[in-house]
Amino acid sequence: EGVRAILQDVHPHFTDEKYTGFLVLTQTCDLVRRNRESCKSRYVNLAVVRPLRDVLGFLLDRACERVMVSGHPVNGFYCKETKVKAHQLMERVFNQNAQAEGLFYLHPNAQAGILAPSVALIQVSVAVRSHEHYDVLVKARSGRLAEQFQSKLGWLIGNLFSRVATQDWPEAARKTMESAFL
Fold first, then answer.
1. Rounded to an integer, what distance in angstroms lies between the CA atom of residue 140 and that of residue 143?
2. Helix, coil or strand: residue 64
3. Using an 8 Å Cβ cutoff, are 25 and 125 in contact?
4. What angle do CA 57, 62, 68 make, to 5 degrees?
5. Contact, 28 vs 150, CB < 8 A?
6. Model confidence over 102-161: pLDDT tens digits?
7. Kind and range of the H or E run holding 103
8. What's the whole-model pTM score?
9. Which of 66, 81, 115, 159 is the most exposed place for a label (fewest CB within 10 A)?
10. 78 in Cβ contact with 68 (< 8 Å)
11. Three-class SS of residue 100?
């Protein structure tokens, strides 16, 4: 409730009950209070958490071809030929390899408040000021990722947000190089 009260002030959209929790994206080392009142990070970034069943339709719509009736796609029905894509999507989600989708899977854990298979939507986040809200966030904390999953989350965040844009080779030059090597 404390986090929802903060969000009511800074970004009311995130108080919607469809968000069942929040996952801290800010690095732990930047959140430690070392010999001072505040932590190193000025902001704490929180990714929203939603039950997997609530976002599954959207994910399947992007991965699989929907059945068409009279030229219109039918919600929740997918072509049998794309069933393998659905299985591959779920495998990526459960194995923490859904970086293209920006997802981090959270297995149910009642102690941590995760009551159903859920996903953190890493690209959907909100920042709150650490100096104002740190104590409320610490009090609201209900769980912690195992160390290897902390590392995986860090890698996923870097993969999503720290990519370096490089210019592609002009098509003619690239084709010349391809032909030379092939």
1. 9
2. coil
3. yes
4. 80
5. yes
6. 999 999 998 888 999 999 999 898 988 888 888 888 888 888 888 889 888 888 888 787
7. strand 103-106
8. 0.79
9. 81
10. no
11. coil
